[in-house]
Amino acid sequence: MPLLQGKVALVTGASRGIGRAIATRFAQEGASVAFTYLSSVEKGQALEAELAALGVKAKGYRSDASDYKAAEELITQVIADFGTLDVLVNNAGITRDGLLMRMTEEAWDEVIRVNLKSVFNLTKAATRPMMKAKSGSIINLTSIVGVRGNAGQANYAASKAGIIGFTKSVALELASRNVRSNAIAPGFIITEMTGEVSEKAVEEWMNSIPMKRGGQPEEIADACIFLASDMSKYITGQVLQVNGGLLT
Ligand code: NAP
């Protein structure tokens, strides 16, 4: 049987990159998939048709994960459309890189709002129906940078480290209700986000990765399938590192 048969999943930020791969792999494993996008409207709409062609129920929503009220409305709408919510993947994220000396207040606030507050917004709204159902899996996309820091990414690293603390706290609060909360920490994954990284920095990453290559979005999606499925039903409060062997 497909690993996610009968489950309803919501993936934020699925128009591109890792989120898109997660939505697609979830559909291939039989899940009904709700997903969000924000600025990439055409790509989001195209994904809905692609997922439906895999034979599952799929629906895209244009929704800003960093907006508290919009997140509440989204969860209400997903429950109305799909009947339940078994899996939440908080994937939406951005970078606004720069050395601290040059980092503006706006670049700090925006990254914390989109990367960290969004996880609070969606998780808070999703936990009510999950607690009622006494079942649920919340998966938050953190980063290797949130574990060990990175020059030029103080805002991003802080947001991703914040996600780890949040994930572990929520796990403790909800474990008795059979609602699990875990994080995935990707290393260097080849997407538009890492397409912005300088050639020199990419070379440094590649040299430091024991497997000597960047990861594919699908390799993160496969880890997500594990944490979304009943294969991981006794695992909560963990950070799963998917990074080609980098030690942190
Ligand atoms: P990406 O290619 O830049 O895609 C980001 C996605 O997030 C897009 O679909 C975008 O949607 C969506 N998004 C951005 N702001 C949003 C908002 N306010 N509301 C809803 N959706 C929003 O990034 P990626 O590389 O796939 O990264 C996905 C996640 O993995 C992020 O959390 C990132 O921090 C994390 N991660 C990535 C790497 C890596 O190496 N790539 C490593 C570690 C962790 P629109 O385009 O429609 O706005």
TrEMBL record:
Keyword Oxidoreductase included in the entry's annotation: yes
Active site positions: 156
SMART domains assigned: PKS_KR
Ketoreductase domain location: 7-187
Signal peptide boundaries: none
Membrane-spanning segments: none
Matching InterPro entries: 3oxo_ACP_reduc, KR_dom, NAD(P)-bd_dom_sf, Sc_DH/Rdtase_CS, SDR, SDR_fam
PROSITE patterns cross-referenced by the UniProt entry: ADH_SHORT
One MF term in the entry's GO annotations: NAD binding
EC number assigned by the record: 1.1.1.100
Family the UniProt entry places it in: Belongs to the short-chain dehydrogenases/reductases (SDR) family.
Assembly and oligomerization: Homotetramer.
Protein name: 3-oxoacyl-[acyl-carrier-protein] reductase
